[in-house]
Specification:
Blueprint lengths: L1 E5 L7 H12 L3 E3 L12 H11 L1 H12 L8 E5 L1 H11 L6 E5 L15 E8 L6 H14 L2 E8 L15 H18 L4
Parallel strand pairs: 1-2, 1-3, 3-4, 4-5, 5-6
Amino acid sequence: MDIMLFHSTYGLRHGVRQAAERLEAAGHTVWTPDLFEGRTFGSTEEGMAFQDGIGKDELLKRAVLAAAPRSDRGLVYAGFSLGASVAQTLALGDEKARGLLLMHGTSDIAENAAVDDLPVQLHVADPDPFEPHDWLTAWYLGMGRAGADVEVYRYSGAGHLYTDPDLPDYDEEAAEQTWRVALAFLESLDGTP
């Protein structure tokens, strides 16, 4: 499976590279575009200030330019938090997308978004200050209306970016459970045309 994996607001850090290595060890080909062009951050606030300075349109442009040369292959889009929102936007706009793996984040859904049974899996803390329950309910319904086949996994008591071993949010048990489920999801996509 060809996977385009987008980083969080912390930038392309060690934890993202570790995740890519884990996916590659399972037999996938993974690309990790650097939307921040080498910048990494030690806090959510610093990262968010930097991403706001770049602007959503420029971040999406960078993501599209990274994915475009490989999108004919039929990519699985994946990401962490900010990267999940970027991945979602690209997957909903790519008719050849094979799947969407979201960790710790979602995004607005365009009114005209339409996909043909796109397999989508979301892993999120419960509760998550960035993904409140009301938002996730509306998001789930919106993705269903757009034609996505959505699975949501919630991890009680975990912090927002609980899969990143270098961050205070890290929760080993929740992270390992997430990876088991996510790897099974990716394996299930291998038979997707």
